[in-house]
Amino acid sequence: MKPEDLQKLLSVPMPNGKYKGRVIADLPGHYLNWFAREGFPGGELGRLLALMQEMDHNGLKPLLDPLRQKTPSD
Description:
Layout: H1 3-11, H2 29-38, H3 43-57, H4 65-68
């Protein structure tokens, strides 16, 4: 993991599917767990989804809160 990956979790949207347009950090845990069971897509998207699933599974989502307050969309 690179430090900039945390910011990407707050800015990279899902490109397709049920949660299209929602940033990765805001995806529900059950959806992330589905990817963990069925397989993450390749490339950066899959890497970020796997990171978010790991953070969600281990209760680390609050680590994104300070970064969330600094996003330009706020």
